[in-house]
Design a protein that fits this description.
The protein is mainly β and about 130 residues long. About 0% of the residues lie in helices and about 50% in strands. An eight-stranded antiparallel barrel has the order 1-2-3-4-8-7-6-5.
Length: about 130
Amino acid sequence: MEAEASPPVGSPPCFLWFQRPGVYKDEKGRIWVAVAVQINPSHRARGRGAPESTHEVSIMVHLWQLPNQMPRPPSCLFVSGLPMKWELYPGRRYQGTDSRLWEIVDHGQVISTENLVLKRLPSGSH
């Protein structure tokens, strides 16, 4: 039996505004919930004369678009470090209110749930 293809997903949201920890609303009034946040320490390559402690934390967030009801985010979800607002920029990136850039790693649909995976880029990325 042939697998049914997922319906095409349009453009990612232009804006995501903070509603409460782990919950965002887009420009169409749709609710997005951070269902998973991955945090990995990553060490940047050290050049000559660079401080020994030069490192940056990599953050990846998985957002699911849910029906227009204000869900309760999981109590164990670590959500600090996420911006109050994301704005879509060219090049499949969002810019947060803290001016940090977030790359769109994935934007698709699983069954009837639209999902968006964002990865925070190292500071100084353009």
